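Long-time lurker, first post.

We've been arguing in lab meeting about whether SN-glycerol-3-phosphate would sit comfortably in this protein at all. Half the group thinks yes, half thinks no, and nobody has a model to point at. So I'm putting the question to the forum: if I give you the sequence and the SMILES, can you give me back a predicted structure of the complex? Inputs are below. Any interpretation is welcome too.
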Amino acid sequence: MVLSSSGLTTTQPLFSFGLISDVQYADIPDGRSFLGVPRYYRHSILVLQRAVKEWNTHQKHKFVINFGDIVDGFCPKDQSLGAVQKVVDEFEMFRGGPVYHMIGNHCLYNLPRSKLLPLLKIQSLDGRAYYDFSPVPEYRFVVLDGYDISAIGWPQDHPKSLEAMKILREKNPNENKNSPTGMEGLERRFLMFNGGIGREQMEWLDGVLLEATKKKQKVVVCCHLPLDAGAASEKGLLWNYDEVMNLIHRYNCVKVCLAGHYHKGGYSIDSHGIHHRIIEAALECPLDTNAFGHIDAYHDRLSLVGTDRMKSTDMHFYPTS
Ligand SMILES: Nc1ccn([C@@H]2O[C@H](COP(=O)(O)O)[C@@H](O)[C@H]2O)c(=O)n1
Ligand SMILES: O=P(O)(O)OC[C@H](O)CO
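Top reply:
Settle the argument with this. Predicted structure of the protein with SN-glycerol-3-phosphate, as tokens:
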């Protein structure tokens, strides 16, 4: 406890970290999403630069998490490598500690996993992009690879690609597998720009949650793709979000799930009291506006302090016995 200037006692966070999502940088003129939402491809890297400057000014953040989609799919392919490197270099200007990246669909439109993962410093076996880390003994972060089963990013004849195409053929009747036309409700998540968690990753997640439970750690799950329909459009959900959440709900250790992809951002608390916070996209910030923030982590809550378009959210943990 410390005494604030107002004389009231306040509790210091255990640690803090910076966060940003969907930078989707490209050296191309402004454009729009399929549904007409403006996208500012060149301005987004300025948002990132301002974020890093702010995080460095604070001098208290232990690390940064980037929620994926570092470069946009419209980036000319002969510029992909340079563009990803350029954005990574901006992140590297953060002086407080490591930057944890995750992959999104737009990353995979630009580069194969074999090139992408070393650039993003994701230690990988066989192209896997899931990992965990524990910044303090009380907390563990799990970073999921939402494009583990995906029709993008793996060679076309790779078993994971074939499995993804089978799912899309069964679930999505459209020739354009990015189109949800004629699909109803939650079924609308079966789009090519989404993906799923494979069996091995599920088993790995189970093991991490078991270990975290034994260590009495609070877990924050991070994934480019949202895991709760209350916080995002069903068109943006992880294909097997339901299986992943059923597994998570078997434990009491997961307190918060953070994601990107759904550019508008969102927030919900699910049936088990887990907070789902979808991070607003840097790409959709008009000139001189921002969408980045930091999270202060306490024993009993995460407090997201957002800038401009990123809303602030206090996430108090549901009491568990
Ligand atoms: N209702 C929709 C939405 C999207 N698509 C296809 O997905 C691509 C990516 O969409 P963005 O929102 O990221 O622009 C888009 O180019 C369309 O091919 C769709 O078919 N129907
Ligand atoms: O990642 P994008 O740019 O294809 O956009 C995905 C949608 O916003 C998901 O809701």
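For your lab meeting: Helices lie at 43-58, 80-92, 105-110, 113-119, 159-171, 199-214, 241-249. The pocket of SN-glycerol-3-phosphate (ligand 2) is lined by residues 69, 105-106, 193, 233, 235-236, 261-263 (CB under 6 Å). Whichever side wins, do check it experimentally.
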